[in-house]
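Researcher: Going back to the complex we discussed earlier. I've cleaned up the inputs and rechecked each line, so this should be the final set. Can you rerun the prediction on the complete assembly and write out the structure?
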Amino acid sequence: MKIGFYPGCSLEGTAREYNESLKEISKVFKIELEEIIDWNCCGATAAHSLNKDLALALPARSLALAEKQGFNEIVVPCAACYSRLFTAYSELNSEPEKLEKIKEIIQIDFKVTSKPINVLEFINKYIKPDLKDKIKNKINLNIACYYGCLLVRPPKLLAVERYEDPMIMEEIIKITGAKPLDWAFKTECCGAGLSVSKTDVVNKLSGKIIDDAINRKADIIIVACPMCQSNLDMRRKSINTYLNKKLDIPVLFITQLIGKALGLDSNKLGLQRHFVKVSPELFMQKGISSDSVSNKIGVEV
Amino acid sequence: MHTELNAETLNLNLKHKIKKDTGEDIMLCYQCGKCTAGCPLNDEMDISPNQLLRMLQTEIPDLEEKVLKSSTIWLCLSCETCFSRCPKEVDLPKIMDYLRSESMRQNSVNKKASDIVAFHRSFLSTVKSVGRLYEIGLIAGYKARTFHLLQDVNVAPTMLLNGKLKIKPPLIKNRSEIAKIFDRIKELEEKEK
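Model: Rerun complete. Updated structure for the full complex:
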């Protein structure tokens, strides 16, 4: 099966391991992620903060290109890109005047038929149904599933049920054998786009998230957004300085965790790319239950 | 004395401009305070989210000016918590977007927000020339605008080692189309003026 793919800028750089692990697990399910040719940046926080036309026009161009390639659905793994693309998709579908204006701006005629889906929708629809049969290594970890903002909000636009306490990730990772935890910060904001311009805000907000996950005895945190991952992982040193603690809990993408459960090679899943190292011991002692067929995971990490 | 609706008073009548531009009706707010209670950055802001809405409801020019000059509108992370909890479904993040662009247009940007604006500008100028985000270009532009020359020098080497930093800009094929999108929007704005 082929499906449209909008990687977004982060997945080409700071969140390479998200891209790598998503592609690896898709391969197992015989799904080919076909990139939108010549896609461009969605404009992110910068565009919608400064200019509302730009905030629609930039994602609209990628939606139009996807349509020309004949995709009904496009997987958008970055939660921030997904939010921008989905906002454009729904506003341009419901407001014909806006669509005319944007078509004029981007100079491409299109009907807005390619629907962006986020990584959790993608996994739910195309991976979860057959996941159980393909598990090779049961994961035996306590996991804090962290959603952040843009996978669940605004609920009116995204039509997400239980947006204050979503369970989509929990339901997915239970199949791998992992134990999802009940915790308080799963939909709190990490500090998002202020990572560079106001790092102190990220220290404070992300610090609370990591602290709570540890207090609930989580072994790892899993995420589905490159901004959340980089704030919780890349900013860990400054978060630790701010909190005056040494918090070393790893932050993995949900796709990396699924990849481990499928028995895939750690390096292919990009586990070596994290700032907070994913320790081999963690996987060796706790990561695999005693009935597991292979203990390779720990060695490879 | 009869106050005339001159350009300046119209300019400051934010409540109506917001309604016209975003479709959001500020008068729906009945000050329950849920937005402020849930806002992750409320204690950093100079005006609380619910106060900001109340100030705009009054249509008092001085208060409107304070809103446009506040740090609040720039600190808002667009996390959408307020909107998802608002019993009257006021889309506050959308209003914040409007207030930010209006604050820029009127040259009223809060001094504390200058780094944030510099970051947004550097980001967009990279996208305009490359078509995608180029981190090195973005950070160089940001540092040139803010003189925060030493910021993040400690994470950059590890990013490189982890294969997370692209050396070459990820140029897209039709990047001139992206620059044209920026230019057309600018032309449209000038026409509207």
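Model: Worth noting: Residues 110 and 173 of chain B are 38 Å apart (CA to CA).
Researcher: Good, that matches what I expected from the previous run.
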